[in-house]
Amino acid sequence: MQITVHKGGITMGKLVKRSQRRAYYGVPAAEPGTTTYTRMTKFTSLSKSKNPKTYSRQYVDEDAAIEDVVGYAESISYAFDEEVGNTVHADIANIADEEQLGEDAVREIIVVFLDQEGETSGSKRAVKRSYAVIPNGEGDKVEAYTRAGDFKCRGPQVFGEVTSTDDWKTVTFTADT
């Protein structure tokens, strides 16, 4: 909930719905060097943690400690019900099943802010980042085959905007200049 405080009192803003933050996963295409950013569907969890890295110290001439944020190690914990024909699920399952390592297990994720218009007509604001795909569990439900793990930060955020030509099933990212 957004709350704005001004002289006349408090104004309550609209809540941002979880569905207004849509994630797209960079699925490597058959042609080397080509990636398709596909909507991440059937995920039961996509929970982001910023994991700030801090520098803490206390100077001898001061009573209180000082702490500064010096970096971030963002991670996104994920869980999904594996679905046949879902290219995102298939790619994550392949990374886990083949126990891929290093750069072979790095993918980009774009988070789209559906409530924020971009500069280009019909575009939305977005942020893209590379993550290491770290699977850590599977098959713990009876009703559906599930997979879970974490996406761990592998680089800086890149801000920009996205457009879509297929009703937001896939997106094309353009970085800010």
First-residue to last-residue Cα separation:
31 Å
Number of discrete helical segments: 1
H-E order:
EEEEEEEEHEEEEE
Strands of the biggest beta sheet: in what spatial order? 3-4-13-12-10-9
Mean pLDDT comes to 93
Radius of gyration: 20 Å
- Strand percentage, roughly? over 45%
Strand segment count: 13
Q: Uncertain runs with pLDDT below 50, 5 residues or more? A: none
Task: Summarize the main sheet.
Answer: 6 strands, antiparallel, barrel
Helix-strand makeup class: mainly beta
Residues in helix, %: under 10%
Shape: globular
Q: Helix and strand layout, with pairings?
A:
Blueprint lengths: L2 E4 L2 E4 L8 E8 L6 E5 L3 E7 L2 E6 L8 E7 L2 E7 L5 H11 L8 E12 L6 E15 L7 E8 L4 E6 L6 E6 L2
Short synopsis of the structure:
The chain is mostly beta strands. Helices cover 6% and strands 54% of the residues.
Model description:
The protein is mostly beta strands and about 180 residues long. Helix content is about 5%, strand content about 55%. The chain contains 1 helix and 13 strands. The protein has a 6-stranded antiparallel barrel with strand order 3-4-13-12-10-9. β1 and β2 form a beta hairpin. The chain is globular. The mean pLDDT is about 95.
